[in-house]
Amino acid sequence: MKKVKHKNKFSFDWGLVIIPVLLAASSLATLYSITSISGRTDLVVDQAVYFVISFLLYFLFSAMDYRILKPLGWYAYALGLLLLVIVEFFGLSVFGSSRWIDLGFFQLQPSELMKFLFIIFASSYFADRQKFNLRSVIVFILLAIIPAVLILREPDLGTTLVVIASIITILISIKPPAKFYYFAIGIALVATPLAWHYLKPYQKQRITSFANPESDPQGSGYNVIQSKIAVGSGGLYGKGFSGATQSQLSFLPVSHIDFIFSGWAEATGFIGSITLVFLYCYLLFRIFTVSMLSRDRFGQLYCLALGGLLSFQVLVNIGMNIGLAPVTGIPLPLMSYGGTSLAVVSMMIGVSQSVFLRRKGLTFE
C-alpha cells in the first residue's frame, strides 16, 4: 500500500512556540518594572541574553528527533547524579545554599537541569514496560529517591518537590492498579514525618507560617504578606510597569524570582493576572494534547511527565504568591529570572514540539 504524505508534515504546534515567547516577553517587562527605580538593568539584559540562547536551544531540540533520547535514559540519569554530586562537594554557596556550579561565564544549577534529565530517564525506563510491574516500580522509586535527597541537601525543597511531582505523574501515567495507590499513600504517610525531621528550620517556619502569616509579620510571614499586598494593590487594571511601587521599592522580596507573579499582578492587575494564567493553561493543554498524538510510548510519557511537572510549578508558585501555598522557592516557568531555569524549560518544551512534529500519521524523509 502506497504511503501518503501529509501536506502539513512540517507544521509546528504554534501554541508551543507563541505562548513561551509571550511568557518570556512578560518576564522581561516585569523585570524592567521591578528594576526601573533601583537601576539594576543588568537583570533585564541578562534575562534577554538568556531568552535568545534558550530559544535557540528550543528550536534545536524541536528539530532533533526526540526518539534519539530514549536509549540515552540511563546516561541522562547518570549525568544528573554526577552534577548533583559535584554540587554537593564543590558547589558555589549563596545565602547558605550550595546549588550552583561556577563555570566562570555562567552559573549552572544542576537541580534545574535534573528535571529535564530525570524526565528523559523516567520516560525511557517505562517506555518498554507495557504492563504494570511492582518490582520495576520499586526499583524506579529507589532510583528517584537518590537525586531527590541530593537536591534536598543543597538545600532546595522547591526543586525536590518538583522532582517528586514528576515521579507521581509518571507513576499515574503507567496506570497502576488501585491497591498500588493505597500502598503509595501509606508510604507517604510514613515518610512525611521523616522528611519533616530533615527540613531546615527556615523551611519549617515557612510551612508553619502558611496558615497564619500574620503571626510573624516581620519574620517567616513577611514574604507572603508583602506578596499579597502587591497582588491586591494592582486592582483591576494594574498600576502599570512604571508605577508598581510595591515591587519597585523592594517591599516585595526576591521579586525577580520567587515572587515575579506578584510583580506582574501589581503592574497589570486582575486582567493581566488572568491573562497570564490563561497562557499557562493553554500551554499545558497543548503539551497534554501532544502526549495523545505521540507515535510511541516514550513520547507520550515524556509529554505527560512534562505537563505534570510544569503544572505543579505553576500552581505552587502562583499559589504561594497569593497565599494559597507555602513559600517553597519554586520558580515560575519562563517568567522567573534565571538562565538555567529558562534554558531547561525551553529545551523540555522543544522536545514536546519534536514529538508533535513526528506525531501519528506524518512521515519524515
Concise synopsis of the structure shown:
This protein is mainly alpha-helical and 365 residues long.
Broad shape: globular
Sheet with most strands: strand arrangement: 1-2-3
Q: How is the quaternary structure best described? A: single chain
Per DSSP, the total helix count is: 13
Mean pLDDT: 85
What's the number of extended β-strand segments? 3
Structural class: mainly alpha
Could you explain how this protein is built, in words?
The chain has one domain. The chain has 13 helices and three strands, in the order αααβββαααααααααα. The protein has helices at 15-35, 41-63, 73-90, 110-127, 134-152, 157-173, 178-197, 201-208, 222-233, 245-248, 260-293, 297-321, 339-357, and strands at 92-94, 97-102, 107-108. Strands 1-2-3 form a three-stranded antiparallel sheet. It is globular.
Relevant terms:
single chain; 365 residues; mainly alpha; 3-stranded antiparallel sheet; 13 helices; 3% strand
Layout of secondary structure:
Layout: H1 15-35, H2 41-63, H3 73-90, E1 92-94, E2 97-102, E3 107-108, H4 110-127, H5 134-152, H6 157-173, H7 178-197, H8 201-208, H9 222-233, H10 245-248, H11 260-293, H12 297-321, H13 339-357
